């Protein structure tokens, strides 16, 4: 099987897994509900308007458009990579994992506001006729659910500012798509630094074409 086909299969498989998890959580849990799996692992349903792990640096619409542009560029870059006779399959797989994660969160932003009513702490969200949901196109909230409080303790009293406050490591709540993006990016920097040098050149050529 050609690497281009593997890229498509990985992309589709991971995107589908991400959406299955999110839809199961959104349609079976109330907002803020948490399931205690182990002492260090919870399924906690939260929604966010921002980036991975609940970060909020950009306006929602700007972020959604940025994600679409980023996915388009990565898709174009993968297409160029698989056409090279000397490309590495592992590199293509890594890129496919990243684009799948990005697409998973884009789907939330694009369609969840159109097809679901609002999740609240008192009611479970339901599917509604298309366009009658809680928000408009590209304004949907991203569903997060994985919470890993690996260390829960208290800052010593002598620590400035935080002394006596609770300390949690790792506190962000994230989703499967976030994990795909993070793992893919870490692998890129660990194992494919030389390949990354080509991305800038491709971006410049694409910008000149536009």
Reconstruct the topology from this structure.
Layout: H1 3-26, E1 34-38, E2 41-48, H2 60-83, H3 89-115, E3 142-147, E4 151-154, E5 166-169, E6 173-174, H4 176-191, H5 193-209
Antiparallel strand pairs: 1-2, 2-3, 3-6, 4-5
Helix pairs in contact: 1-3, 2-3, 3-4, 4-5
Question: Could you characterize what this model shows?
Answer:
With 210 residues, the protein is of the alpha+beta class. It is 51% helix and 14% strand. It is built from 5 helices and 6 strands, in the order H-E-E-H-H-E-E-E-E-H-H. The strands form 2 sheets. The chain has a 4-stranded antiparallel beta sheet with strand order 1-2-3-6. It has a two-stranded antiparallel ribbon with strand order 4-5. Strand 1 and strand 2 form a beta hairpin. Helix 1 packs parallel to helix 3, helix 3 packs antiparallel against helix 4 and helix 4 packs across helix 5. It is globular, with a radius of gyration of 19 Å. The protein starts with a helix and ends with a helix. The mean pLDDT is 87.
